[in-house]
Amino acid sequence: xxxxxxxxxxxxxxxxxxxxxxxxxxxxxxxxxxxxxxxxxxxxxxxxxxxxxxxxxxxxxxxxxxxxxxxxxxxxxxxxxxxxxxxxxxxxxxxxxxxxxxxxxxxxxxxxxxxxxxxxxxxxxxxxxxxxxxxxxxxxxxxxxxxxxxxxxxxxxxxxxxxxxxxxxxxxxxxxxxxxxxxxxxxxxxxxxxxxxxxxxxxxxxxxxxxxxxxxxxxxxxxxxxxxxxxxxxxxxxxxxxxxxxxxxxxxxxxxxxxxxxxxxxxxxxxxxxxxxxxxxxxxxxxxxxxxxxxxxxxxxxxxxxxxxxxxxxxxxxxxxxxxxxxxxxxxxxxxxxxxxxxxxxxxxxxxxxxxxxxxxxxxxxxxxxxxxxxxxxxxxxxxxxxxxxxxxxxxxxxxxxxxxxxxxxxxxxxxxxxxxxxxxxxxxxxxxxxx
Length: 436
Ligand SMILES: [Mg+2]
Prior knowledge:
Helix content is about 35%, strand content about 15%. The chain is of the alpha/beta class.
């Protein structure tokens, strides 16, 4: 089954003013829906990062893809790996780059988008779900977590496309408890993740404590300040939240670098505190894992099929983490239903994922869904593997056209949370690490 065409659909999706240590989310997040056509009339799709960078890389790959058999992914992977190796130098961490804008993982990201579209096409040709092409699923439903964000008032979008502010402003511990209750009531999530690194650490500690008081010890909690804290502050937070981050919780990328996280770990262990640390910033590639292991910096690796290299790489990572005695969870970005299903299939075929995966999906709306038939449903906080081939979704071409029109009107072609923060919140704002 040979590829005859590669189609790229850039889309803009409304996004509320969510905060992180990177800055502020813009009125619209940008994504790319990737589609391959084959000589058998079967199509495959995937979803990846948006804007000129990711689109340019996919366009560049187009000539190599035309005529390629969708079953021959190993050679394609070797080709992308060789390109990555020829250019590899410097730090591949995500400390200074938002996902999708890290030049060091661009070949891996591009391959992942193509691999997932090919697996979707193969699944459709064989009438098998994507996860069953990789040896079968470890679970029939994949649990996701309630992903809380400190946020300003507003629901995203602009002008006559402005959205309702479903969750309202969230800049205090009380407001964040409200946000969590609302999201859990709607989706049934059983674990909570708080994006931190936004307010004074004391306020973020109090937020986690308030969540614990509200939901009790059976709802695991995690906090992720994206490297906003120094080693000292990370240790202080770890000490302050010993109880709250226990029982299935974790401390995610508290400070920058594998060495920094190793130091936090050492100092917490010396105080008898064994809270695991997770990372999707310091650890973003296979080669980081032995180094993280050596420093005992990371106990849980945060996978993401979009930048670890697709579904098969995700499964390799699962085994790799097991070998190193590390746990596995999943990171996310703003995304639509195609990514939602890629993440679900990826997690389904990883036996060692023992945490609910992250998802930004509750922050996007029905109006922006590109999957025919509408939003992917959650059942008690989980997405069930559908009994449909490939990723289990078809594209809605009217929606793609509408979202592309909106994309074309945007003045930006890359994600820049720092610029957005200066424009809308504080003209002097700069990303400083560590901030606290
Ligand atoms: Mg993270």
